[in-house]
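Reader question, answered in our methods column.
A reader sent in the components of a multi-part assembly and asked whether the whole thing could be modeled at once rather than chain by chain. We filled in our standard form and ran it. Here is what they sent:
COMPLEX SIZE: two components
ENTRIES:
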Amino acid sequence: MQFFENEIKEYAEFAWSTLDLKIIPTSEQFHEGTKNSITANIQISGQWQGVIAMKIEHDLAQQLAVKMFSIEEKQVTETEINDAVSEMMNIIGGNLKSILPQPNQLSLPMVDLKGTPLHFPFTEQRSQVAFACAGNAFEVTIHQVVADKKTNFQHPVVETS
Amino acid sequence: MQFIEKEIGEYTKNIWKSILSLDVNPAQNGSEDNENNFAVAGCIQITGAWNGTVTMEYPMPLARQVASIMFDLNGGPIENELIQDALGELTNMTGGNIKSLLPEPCFLSLPAVAVTDKAMRIPGSELVSKVMFQCNGENFQVSLLKRVDE
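And here is the structure of the entire assembly that came back:
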């Protein structure tokens, strides 16, 4: 069992259910590049430090926007997709935040509509859970800051003249 | 003069000198072709009284050189992970210093790094400074983007 695997499933199911969408956890890995994908992440800092990240196929993100804003598919722009993915990231991140060591703070979500694969230095991936939803896929991963990888992980203020 | 352009220039120069012993000099803002050579991009978010993102982008030859110096690899093989860690470190230091100039309280996120042939895009923000540098014949850039209030 991976780190908070059950909770990731529970919170993702909850987030999707608010839009009347059913998701199924799957053992198939999310394949980047096969379809247009979108990446998103939200950070938690404080007593627990790390990143919750999500990769989601564009068609599914579009479906989220349709449901969330009660609009037609043809009315969906990048703004609605960005907002819909941000909101889902916020719900999953916010729920995970509440079960991690306190106090901790949640950042604002960050979404990349081009799906640029992001790496999070000084962290290790602790969980990876993939889901299927109406023929599309998405996955949620948790990356925790690892103390021994934080070599020179300081940001001393450098004097300016 | 762009927003805190002088400070970005000085912090970057001092960080690269003190951490990597490399001299960097200001360069002219590059052409699109030049920017397309930036194969690795790092970003770090600042949230609080000021909201935005600091990005650092450079080409792969410089990325290898930076990782090699930072992790004492002495010309040995360089794993992608070390290239990412090195850029994460520099982005973190640059972001931390820029944060100190911004209204308080502000919080710095963890850095995120992309190895990509596409320019990094931060939706919902506008570029307030872009400063180009040159180091050992390679250009790199540091940008500051401010979140646009909707």
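What stands out: Chain B has one domain: 5-145. Chain B touches chain A at residues 6-7, 10-11, 14-15, 18-19, 45, 47, 51, 70, 81, 84-85, 87-89, 92-93, 95-97, 99-100, 107-116, 118, 120-124 (CB under 8 Å).
Send us your own complexes using the same form.
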